Amino acid sequence: MKYRLLAALCYCLHLTSFATVILQYHHVSEETPASTSISPKQFAKHMQYLEDNNFKVIPLSTLIDAIKQHKALPDKTVAITFDDAYIDILTHGKPILDKHGFAFTIFINPGMVGQNTSHFLSWQQLKAMADDGVIIANHGMNHDSLARTPAGMTNKAWLAKNTESLLHAEKIIEAETGQSWRYLAYPYGEFSPEVQQWVNENNFVGFSQQSGAVGINTDLTSIPRFPASQPYDQLSSLRDKLDSLPFSIRLDGVNQQTIFEQGESTSLSINIDVDDFNPEQLNCYITGLGRQKILWQGEEVFTINYSAPLPTGRVRCNCTAPSISKPGRYYWFSKPFFIQEENRQWYPL
Prior knowledge:
Distance between the termini: 44 Å
Mean pLDDT: 93
Structural class: alpha/beta
Strand content: 15-25%
CATH superfamily of the largest domain: Glycoside hydrolase/deacetylase
CATH class of the largest domain: Alpha Beta
CATH architecture of the largest domain: Alpha-Beta Barrel
Order of helices and strands: HEEEHEHEHEHEHEHEEHEEEEEEEEEE
Number of strands: 20
């Protein structure tokens, strides 16, 4: 690529200082499902690693305000989030976070709060945490997928129903905790361009579950978060994620779509603005398919023609490339797909 050194210098001056990672957790427990859990001992190791390596843990609101206002943040900043308002966040997670003075956010389902006091937090507990500076945000009323339009209902009708439900959930959160951030973590991480449009039009910020670093140009309707529970809870894996850098990318047309029937999507094209890496060092991997061949179309667009049909379920295409200006660190972008079975049947949740 032409003018690589100049471009890399400009990029360092203006953008690489803004590289934030959001960590996503659910349970902090050894007695809950492994796929959504991290042990208190391992969670303590995560938090100690952040402190020992001079990461600055910031409130989620500080990050979102920086993106909205195009203001730079210090390098190596981290935001910590939890989904689903489990009681062990309070009993096991918060004492560890408080030890380090780390801010965090909990995305909750108001319809599930207090339903089982041995499992979920109560409103009284959430209010006490909110008063202590914890951000309490929206995860849908009852953890229903926003991307799965029920049979016999149009997308428009489904979005109208969810509008009522999500706005009601936001009002309940405000009434019970005194907070209304209009932050929405998509249940199951599932979303579509139509959902993203709704999020934008209703002045929400949308958080997903695909991996990747957050930067000044991150789309506020699909902000990535790194899952940090099992099986991704080892420090060796966490280190690479914490040091990741945000790709500045753009998806157009069909490449914006997330929901496909199996075999329907055969390729992906990505517009990329970052010039701080060698094109031959860009690698992309797809869930179940492994490393994919990359075809460059000029200097700013590359295409992946899938080596096989995308498998049914939640699929990710993860692309990484080593930075020239920051040796040892990698740019990281993830594109999510939600691949239905034949005849548009949804895979089990």
